[in-house]
């Protein structure tokens, strides 16, 4: 990879900055500055959004939204957030439904009191190409997209983003995300560390993964026990779902276009008992839930045709499809008529699901990078039991001793969840009462967890 042109540009912009003042934005970032989003309350922090071209020949551009920290951004770390899918939007799901500064409400935006930009400078990336406002002028780039292509594009995005924002080059950088970002985040961190061996650019300080896909079989097959233990399936169906046809086998067959008769029978019974009127991403929540939060359609393939009973008004979709909003965001629609939560034009290599990333997580821990895996405990899509098993197995394989024994942690005067830490570097935590999208359903507890992670501190064991 040739890095001289962008490096030269970064240095030039940085030198110009020094001539004026330490924290003045580059002229490149100023063109992406958001004056004000339609309907937003007045805030003191700066916002930016726009495009970073990752391939000029094919005009492949990734869209980002960046909310600087509420107070003293110069002292706060930089955090990249990635949503999953694959193919779902970090802008619509992460920024506007989970941990960003605003939530749409009718015609206006309301402040998210537990926004993660209280603790960090938050960068949301719509990736891969074809997701949200990210686009290409060559439609062949939407075909056969896989983890490798996505990882390289994300790496190039960050390199070029630092040209726009050179003041963040040496800043502590954390990479976070949820769901299929269990693939995106470790793979990107690995690429950044490899890049740093040739040329130091990324000051990576750790990764955090929420309800992540890390190892296909373990993650998916923990679903049967979760269903059974929460009373969603019968004893006999639980036995069928573990011996006759487990969930990883079903998904594997489904994406190869050859579902066996036994798997068809088992899944039919599972679907009948779990009921389409229970939200699989939060089994305690009533089913009327915004389609914005159904980000992991790939993880529930049978539900693609079951688009039932979502809330009548999807506020985020309505908001991001307003022309005045798109203008304020410096966004445009290319090749699609409407902005969508999950891409309708992206053809992702879904069998990448079966490639484990837990080994990459292990290599990051081994190299000294802190890792947090956290689980909303009401999620049946990627249940906490699978994630906990994987983290414990990884700790054992790396020879890490328990440094914080399994215990409760608190937020306010309530139990926030449970946690265990290995070797002061690998952590597992649950968020009590949280869904697959933990910062949406339990914003206060999620913010507490996020803050502790950034500071490298143990979660509070008393209130």
From TrEMBL:
It is an enzyme of class 3 (hydrolase). It holds the Pfam family Peptidase_S10. The keyword Glycoprotein applies. Keywords: Carboxypeptidase, Disulfide bond, Glycoprotein, Hydrolase, Protease, Secreted, Signal. PROSITE patterns: CARBOXYPEPT_SER_HIS (PS00560), CARBOXYPEPT_SER_SER (PS00131). This is Carboxypeptidase. It comes from Tetracentron sinense (Spur-leaf). Residues 1-21 form the signal peptide.
